TrEMBL record:
One of its GO terms (biological process) is translation. PANTHER family: 30S RIBOSOMAL PROTEIN S16, SMALL RIBOSOMAL SUBUNIT PROTEIN BS16M. Residues 125-135 have a biased composition (Low complexity). This is Small ribosomal subunit protein bS16. Residues 79-144 are annotated as: Disordered. Keywords: Ribonucleoprotein, Ribosomal protein. Residues 98-124 have a biased composition (Basic and acidic residues). One of its GO terms (molecular function) is structural constituent of ribosome. InterPro entries: Ribosomal_bS16, Ribosomal_bS16_dom_sf. One of its GO terms (cellular component) is small ribosomal subunit. Belongs to the bacterial ribosomal protein bS16 family.
């Protein structure tokens, strides 16, 4: 499988990248088939020399089945060669199946605890009201 990707050059803390066509199994800065552009992140974003591309050559490689990496796809989308959409995977942050099960169990335990507290409170109120009701007839009987 062919990839259109960045190969790093430049010195320490001064990156410079060549945009290359390489086999997916080749190392990042290793063997490549062709250089098709460059990317200099040290230049300002509005500088024309920040990204240089050989668009005709890249278009040919895309027809042959080369897949751009995400960063290179960004550059190519500005030239209209590929479609790239900004955004993250919305499913990435969702908990897994086990975590969802644990959360459901925790919520059920909490609900059971609240139900038990409400039942105990209702019993206590009923018990407090019952002796008062029992005392009232006793008082009436003693008055008569």
């Amino acid at each position: 499988m062919l990839k259109i990707r960045l190969a790093r050059g430049g010195s320490k803390k001064r990156p410079y990248y060549h945009i290359v066509i390489a086999d997916a199994a080749a190392p990042r800065d290793g063997k490549f088939i062709a250089k098709v552009g460059s990317y200099n992140p040290m230049l300002s974003k509005d500088d024309a020399n920040r990204v240089t591309l050989k668009t005709e050559v890249i278009a040919d490689w895309l027809k042959k089945g080369a897949q751009p990496t995400d960063r290179v796809a960004r550059f190519l989308s500005k030239e209209g060669l590929v479609k790239w959409e900004h955004g993250n995977n919305p499913q990435k942050g969702t908990p897994g199946k086990k975590a969802q099960e644990r959360a459901a169990e925790r919520a059920q335990r909490e609900q059971d605890r609240l139900d038990a507290e409400a039942a105990a409170k209702a019993e206590a109120e009923a018990a407090a009201a019952a002796p008062a009701a029992e005392e009232a007839p006793a008082e009436e009987a003693s008055e008569g």
